[in-house]
Structure formats: structure tokens, C-alpha cells
């Protein structure tokens, strides 16, 4: 049989082991609690960041929508201005074409007037030559006599 000392000794060893094991379990439980707390903090931070990111995405989406709307409005305005300018250009082109046609007509009229004036001028010059020839003293008459028979 075992002696009482051995039994007490074994009992003490068992108690020490149990105490050590209990402390070890408490230490593991504390670590588990700290780990759970850290996980909860990280989850809370993750959820907070996720909410912030979603809010920023919504704001960015609103901003992009506003910018797209502004760009669409600008495009409509610019297209309208381009159409107005195209109409103005067409109007100016028509005006230029009309003015060129009018210029050609005026040049033709001027050329006709110049030709007509030159023809009349040559007729007048020819008539004046004939009149001058009729006014000049006759070469058969003596120089002291004029055409009327006087001196």
C-alpha cells in the first residue's frame, strides 16, 4: 500500500496540476476575450469604413450624374449655337453669291455703257470732223475771202 505521504504528495501534485491547468485555461480565456474584442473592433471599423465608402460612392455617383447632366446641357447648347452659326454661314454665303451675281450684272452694264459711250463718242467725233470740214475755207477761194463771199 501506499503510504499516506505518497497519497498526499500525489494529491498535492494533482492539485498543482489542476491549478496550473486552471490558470492556463484562464489565460486562454483571457486571450480569447481579447481576440473577440479585437475582432469586434475590427468588424466595427470595417462596417464604419464600409458605410463611409458607400456614402462617398453615392456622393460621387451624384456628382457624376450632375456633371453628365451639365455636359449634356452644354452639348445641347453648343449644338444649338453650331446650328445657328451654320445658318448664319449659309445666309452669308447666299448674300455673297447674290452680291457676286449683282456685281457681274453691274460690270456687264458698265461694259455696255462704256461701249455705248465709246460708240457715241466716235460718232460725235466723226460728226464734228464733218462740221469742221464744212466750216473751213474752201481751198479754191482766195485766202482773203471767206465762204460767204466776203473779205
| Distance from first to last alpha carbon | 203 Å
Helix-strand topology string: H
Biggest β-sheet strands, sense, barrel: none
Principal-axes geometry comes out as: rod-shaped
Number of strands: 0
Rg over CA atoms, rounded to whole Å, is 62 Å
User: Which structural class is indicated by helix and strand composition?
Assistant: mainly alpha
Could you name the ranges where pLDDT drops below 50 across 5 or more consecutive residues? none
Q: How many H/I helical runs?
A: 1
- Rounded average pLDDT: 88
> Percent of residues in helical segments?
over 70%
Beta-strand residue percentage = under 5%
Pfam families: TACC_C (PF05010)
Domain Transforming acidic coiled-coil-containing protein C-terminal: 28-114
InterPro entries: TACC_C
Coiled coil: 82-116
Amino acid at each position: 500500500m501506499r503510504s499516506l505521504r505518497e497519497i498526499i504528495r500525489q494529491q498535492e501534485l494533482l492539485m498543482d496540476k489542476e491549478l496550473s491547468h486552471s490558470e492556463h485555461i484562464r489565460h486562454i480565456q483571457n486571450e480569447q476575450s481579447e481576440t473577440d474584442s479585437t475582432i469586434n473592433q475590427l468588424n466595427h471599423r470595417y462596417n464604419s469604413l464600409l458605410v463611409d465608402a458607400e456614402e462617398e460612392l453615392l456622393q460621387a455617383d451624384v456628382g457624376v450624374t450632375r456633371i453628365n447632366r451639365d455636359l449634356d446641357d452644354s452639348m445641347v447648347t453648343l449644338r444649338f449655337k453650331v446650328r445657328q452659326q451654320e445658318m448664319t454661314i449659309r445666309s452669308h454665303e447666299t448674300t455673297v453669291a447674290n452680291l457676286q451675281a449683282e456685281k457681274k450684272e453691274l460690270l456687264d452694264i458698265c461694259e455696255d455703257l462704256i461701249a455705248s459711250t465709246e460708240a457715241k463718242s466716235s460718232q460725235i467725233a466723226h460728226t464734228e470732223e464733218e462740221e469742221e470740214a464744212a466750216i473751213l475755207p474752201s481751198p479754191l477761194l482766195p485766202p482773203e475771202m471767206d465762204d460767204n463771199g466776203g473779205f
